Structure formats: structure tokens, C-alpha cells
Amino acid sequence: MSYDFETVVDRTGTGAAKWQHMLDAKPDVPAGISPFSVADIDLKLAPEIVEGLREHLEDVVLGYTVATDDYWEAVTGWFQDRHGWAVTREQITLAPGVVPAFNTAVRAVTAPGDGVIVQTPAYYPFFGAIEGNERVVVRNPLVLREGRWRIDLDDLAEKAADPRTTALLFCSPHNPTGRVWERDELNAVWRIARDNDLTVISDEIHFDLLMPGVQHTVFSTLNDDAAARTIVCTAPSKTFNLAGMATSNIVIPNEQLRENFRLEQGRTGFFTLNALGFQACRLAYSKAGAWLDGLIELVHGNHELVRSFFAERMPQVVVFDLEGTYLQWLDFRALGLSHEELKRINEQEALVYFDEGAMFGTEGEGFERMNLAAPRQTVLDALERLARAYAP
Ligand SMILES: Cc1ncc(COP(=O)(O)O)c(C=O)c1O
After folding, report:
1. pLDDT at residue 33 is higher than 90
2. pLDDT at residue 2 greater than cutoff 90
């Protein structure tokens, strides 16, 4: 089957958050301009999901719905086939999103006032999940070594040694830098977690989005101790563009930890997911693998395009290797512009709408995050506009 990864999907007026942000930045943005910010996908949905939902709707009752056997089989089958990860359905807790899940997890595994470590720059809701729940953000800034973002393990060990620090909110693969942590790096992080008795909340929402030849290791598969101290957050939402379905699967092998998570989740009044979310997730995981392979090819090609374009036309901008996710991290610092000036030129002159690096913490200032899950031509047009706007 061949898939359509070329048609530009204009989401103006559909309530799409990313498009609304663009309009907020420039109310008179001309037609034909697509944004590159929020992490969802401006492409047609996998036809397997659309067809399956259509069929399902023929004869549907949308009452309270719980997971069925075929839902569990699709989810655990995907984990096994794509990640070599053996998960039982009992280990999975449903949640209406990974952001709600890591908020729940922070409350379930730490006490008010505790420190929670994050590698910065960090996905911005990480800060909210910690501070909004009256915990303390403990920053472990990533370091750039030979052009690749690394975890500063000495700093991590030092911060973890503080007895007031009790958890690590980990992003793997890492948004916004696009790093997929190698097994050695994960083992080093695990040893620090073990030695300091940290619970690891591992947000692996991007784990299906791996560039060719890159391997991802699920944190809880490292060893038994890692499994026992880790909450792994997964969802089909980034992979298959189902964020609006608010459906995610949280894997907690440790029974006590799982119980604590469920208790905390129960306090929010959560009972079950939305009926269509179950169907979309089941269809994605059981039928849309080939579509994902095509998406990855597109994203990888877009990354190559961005890399060669900047190398030729704007060599001051550093384009980091993309190992996973569809989020390209770009370093604009060498242009020597203030944050405001960068924003003005990108958004008002070039009509290119990124997620500004500063959203990911002060460590992200001078960087931009570009969403590459878009048709090739859309990416190329935006690059041309940028090059024109920055031309001397
Ligand atoms: C690391 C990370 N976690 C979570 C989310 C969002 O999760 P959800 O929509 O399931 O709440 C995103 C979306 O970009 C993300 O990048």
C-alpha cells in the first residue's frame, strides 16, 4: 500500500492548537503557510485508522466503555513486536494522556517539597508537573559533547545524592534534542537511580519514532531493579497523530507502585477512556505499522533536507542529528540575535512558526524546535522563506 505523505492538510478553523498559535502570532498570516510548532502531524491520518473508525461508527453505542481483549492484544502485541518488550495487561494502567499520567505519577511517588530531576532543556509540561504539584525542579542540564547532547552523569549523581530528591522525570527519546539514549547511557542513569533510590518516571511517548538504524531501549527492560522502580508512559498519540483521542498506556511492573499510581489517579475521578480512543489505539497498533514506517522515511528525509539546506544557505545555524522523534532541534545562537529579534524575523518576516527554545527552559534560549512531520514541500518552502528573511 502506498500512503499519501504529500497532501498539505490545512487545519485552519478546525480547532487545531498549532494552527491557532500561528494565528495568535500573526492574525493576517496568508493562506498556504503551515506551522512547525506543537508536536502533532499535518498529514492525512493512516487510512487503516480512518477506515476502521468509520466501520466501527456504523453500529456504535458511545456509552461507558472499558478495554476489550482485542485492545489489550493490540497494545501488548505492539510493545512485543516493535520493542521486544513483554508486558502483561495487568501491568498497564490507562490514562487520558501522558501529561496527566506523569502529573499523577509525580504525586503518587513523591511528597510535597521533594526534588524531581529533569534533564534540561525539557518538554515544558515537565516543569508544570513538578512545580504545579508543589515539588521542586532539580535541573540536570544536558551537555553538548562533540556535537551530540549527553546526560551529565556527574551532575546527575550529585543531584540524586540529595536525600530530598526522590524521583527522576526522564524523557526517552528526548524532546526537544531528538536524542535516543543508548543502552550504556541508560544503564548509567539506572545505576544512579538505584544507588539513590529514585523512582523513574520514564516518558517514552516518542519511542516508536526512531530514525533508520537507531535502537531504543525501554527503561524498565534494562534489568529487574529498573523494572521495579520505573513507570513507563506510552501512547499512540505522537506515533499515529492521535493526541486528540486522549488515550495512553502506562506500564508499571511493580505492583505496589502501580497501586499507588492508581490510587492517585482515582482521586482525580478518572474511571475510563473515551470510547473512540480505544478503537483508534487498537487500530493503530494492530493495522498501521506500515504507515508509521512511511512516516519515519518522510521525517528522516526532511531531516536530511534541513541539514543540507542550512549547511549551504545558513551555515551559522547548527542542525543536530535527529535520532528519534520528529522534532528537529536547531541552534540559532551564532546569529547573535536577541530572543525577541529571532522571534520577530522568524514569525513576522519569514512566516515560520517554531516552538521557541526558551519554552524548554533557559537552557533552550537561542534554539528553535522544528516539527518535521509535514510534507517535504512544506518544509522546503519554509526553509526558503527563512533563507530569504536572513539574507544580508
Ligand atoms: C515528551 C512528551 N510527553 C508527552 C507529550 C504529550 O502527551 P499527551 O498528549 O499524551 O498528554 C508530548 C507531546 O509533545 C511529549 O513530547
Report:
1. yes
2. no
Can you tell me which atom of ligand 1 is nearest the CA of 40?
14
d(CA 172, CA 201): 10
Q: Are both 93 and 233 inside the same structural domain?
A: yes
Please report, for the domain that includes residue 254, its CATH number: 3.40.640.10
221 lines ligand 1 (CB under 6 A): no
Task: Report percent pLDDT > 70 for the chain.
Answer: 100
Same domain membership, residue 131 and residue 218: yes
Handedness of CA 246, 250, 255, 260 (dihedral sign): negative
**Residue 203, ligand 1, Cβ within 6 A:** yes
Distance 205 CA to ligand 1 centre (A): 6
Q: Is residue 313 one of the residues assigned to a domain?
A: yes
| Ligand 1, atom 16, residue with closest C-alpha | 175
Q: Please name which of 366, 299, 339, 306 lies closest in space to residue 41, comparing C-alpha atoms.
A: 299
Ligand 1 center to residue 388 CA distance, Å?
33
* CA of 95, closest atom in ligand 1: 10
Rounded to the nearest 10 degrees, the angle between the axes of helix 183-195 and helix 153-160 is 20
State the pLDDT at residue 392: 82
My answer on whether 82 and 130 are in the same domain is yes
Residue 169 sits in which domain range? 59-287
- Cell 515537565 found at: 126
